[in-house]
Amino acid sequence: MWKKSLIAIVTFLGGVYFFLEFVVPATIPWKTTSGVVLSKPTSSELEIGLVRETASIQVMDRTTMVRRVGSGALEQALPDSIRPGDLVTVTTPAGYSTTGIVMPESSPRWVKLGRVAASKTVGIEKSILIRRMRARGSGEQVGLDKLNASSSASADWVQVGARTYLSDWYDNVNDFFIVLGSMAWGMGLLSLWLVHSSNIRKRRTEWSLSVLFFAAVALGVVAGLGFGLPEDSREWTKKLSDIVMFDLLRPLGSTVFSLLAFYLASAAYRSFKAKSREAVLMMVAALTVMLGQLSLHAWLTSASTWILYIVTTGAVRAMEFGLMLSGIAIGLRLWLSLERGAFFDREV
Amino acid sequence: MLDFLIKLQKVDRRWIYLAVAVACIVPFIVPMRLSVHPSRETRGVYEAVEKCPRDKVVLLDSGWDAGSLGENMGQGQVIVDHLFRRRIPFIVVDIGGSAQGPQFMNAVIKDIHDRKYPDRRYGTDWVNLGYNPIWGWQVITLVAKDIHKAFPKDYQGTKVDDLPLMRRTHNIDDISLIYTVNYSPCEDYISFVHGVYGTPIAFACAGIQSTTEYRFIPPRQLVGMLVSARGSAEYEVLMYPNNPEMRVSKGTELIVPMTYGHLVIIFGVLIGNIGYFAERWKRRRV
Fold it and tell me: Which residues from chain A sit within 8 angstroms of residue B130, using beta carbons?
């Protein structure tokens, strides 16, 4: 029973952390200063320029943007790559130009520009969190030494304020997932070991294939010793590694995968019949897309592209939306230990 | 005649297998060329690489293996060729793909390096950081924040601090484009890298997987995508518009057998339906 409770508690606490991390701001809002870094910070102080919005410009296909970088040079900027704090000159297709600092509320479709209206010096203490704002408004925690500062060119846009502590654990929780994932690999190997050794001990049907499994694992482990050696190495492990990789795995993997072409052709021939309106619709779309994938004619590619870009995009987005909703529902059930089924009804 | 048409839906599957085999093998014996028309998604990738500055790196996430070699190998070849040609440094990683990914990509790089660009140097023009088994945002986020922490050594066990290219590459600010070539690329790049940092992302994937990825192109979450062998064949047309003899990637090699193989499938579906309608017509008459 205690194992089940432990899993439920860990799952619940993990869920609580991610939920709070998502909804609680990284810094206390009323103790946070947001703006562009004006001068090189010292270990105890940071000078922030408070920016007031002066223009909001819609980005069209022919809108151009030029960013002024630290050295004073100008570089072409794409709407996707501009960041809060960038000093840019936006020129509309009509020829109207505006220069200003990109604000965090900007998006690739709408750029909001501003200018420094005032400056504020913030004292840096241990409880203070510095978050650098990135292209889409989501920030990342940085140290003072990583900040770009300028009063006449692009600089970093930061939010500086008293931390709410949840953000401190983010990297640790991330590391925990990486360690957990690595352990799953070992668990997989252990599980295979248990299943196949039991097959051999009890002489189950096709137990010889289990022997083959252990032989393959042993070969893989020995060949792995040659992984990473220089290309011109004369070590026998390197040669064995190359043989396993390029003379065994490569042709075997390609052969197994290419068998699909034969099964696919046979299955398509047998099952793709225009038995109903829906089947006709699906068949016409599938054949058009398939023809578009070939190098036959440009207009076939265009028809296929229209289906893939417009029709499929809508359909996949709708499916994704449904999947996400059900994912949230299942996630909530797991989080609150309400889920019942083959695993959750049994004692671990 | 009607009976013959009805029989068309009952062709022995072995004839279909034979037709597919002939369609795929003959182009290897009798060299043929088809005109290739670069699509919008392929142009997107090409233009993104053309815009990459030389002082930043391209992150090449390559997690393909023998199973999808026919589709992914060409996609790796063309991008490496293009990056070497433009002398844009690149970093190869394999985040949660196949464990064989780094070795297969190494073979691709070595081949292009030896054949076309022998002056490019490992450690300066490219590095291969090897494999990380965790698929998803955890490692991707770590790479964006501190690539040295995610990959402290390269695939040969050399400390990354000892590689000149890595000494000037620390986080996402030093990466101008992420190109992920895999049977099914990791979509977390879009949410956790493009969504946060705005770094352009390009995918290269298997044809069957591409239908679910097209939705990211219209809103420019993906700058482009190479789809199956067709994508790499199209890319080579863009790279060498006037030199067909320079187009030697796996994609160009496979586009003709792939086209004929697809035509056999389409032909099979058509004759199957002719047989089906003939039978239905006969039943109605009776």
Answer: 228
**B43, HSE (Cβ side, Cα atoms, 13 Å):** 6
Contact A257 B34 (CB under 8 A): no
* Whether A130 contacts A143, CB under 8 Å: yes
Q: In this structure, what is the dihedral angle of CA atoms A23, A25, A31, A36, given to the nearest 10 degrees?
A: -140
Cross-strand pairs, B161 = none
Q: CB distance from A321 to chain B under 8 Å?
A: no
DSSP tag of A205? T
- Picking from A99, A273, A301, the residue whose alpha carbon sits closest to that of residue B36 is A301
Check if the beta carbon of residue B225 is closer than 8 Å to that of residue B41. yes
Spatial neighbors of A144 by CB under 8 A, at least 6 apart, are A41, A43, A46, A124, A130
CA distances from A278 to A34, A283, A342, B280 (A): 55, 9, 36, 18
- What is d(CA B8, CA B272) in angstroms, rounded to the nearest whole number? 6
Q: Which two tokens stand for residue A39?
A: 């001068």
Amino acid at B202: A
Interface check B149 vs A, CB under 8 A: no
Over residues A282-318, the pLDDT tens digits come to 888 888 888 877 767 777 777 888 888 888 889 989 9
Indicate the pTM of the whole model: 0.80
Of A147, A102, A104, A100, the closest CA to residue A122 belongs to: A147
CB B112 within 8 A of CB B80: yes
* For chain A, domain boundaries: 28-163, 277-335
- Judge: B266–A290 Cβ closer than 8 Å, yes or no: yes
The tens digit of pLDDT for each residue in B206-260 reads 988 898 899 999 888 999 999 999 999 999 999 999 988 889 899 999 999 988 9
Q: Which residues of B touch A238 (CB under 8 A)?
A: none
- Cα atoms in the 13 Å half-sphere on the side-chain side of A35: 23
Structure tokens at B5: 């048409």
Establish if B217 touches chain A: CB-CB under 8 angstroms.
yes
Short-list A135, A164, A134, CA closest to A146? A134
- Main-chain phi, psi angles of A36, to 5 degrees: -95, 140
CB A129 within 8 A of CB A162: yes
| 3-state secondary structure labels for all residues of A210-251 | HHHHHHHHHHHHHHHCCCCCCCCCCCHHHHHHHHHHHHHHHH
Work out whether strand A45-58 and strand A110-123 pair parallel, antiparallel, or are unpaired: antiparallel
C-alpha span between B119 and B121 (Å, rounded): 6
Q: Report d(CA A184, CA A203) in Å as an integer.
A: 28
Measured distance CA(B62)–CA(B42) in Å, rounded: 18
Chain B residues whose CB is inside 8 A of the A298 CB are 37
Q: Which secondary-structure segment (H or E) carries A88?
A: strand A87-91
In contact, A245 and B103? CB cutoff 8 Å: yes
Are A252 and B66 in contact (CB < 8 Å)?
yes
Beta carbons of B52 and B176 less than 8 angstroms apart? yes
* Predicted-complex ipTM score: 0.81
Backbone angles phi, psi at A114, to 5 degrees: -145, 180
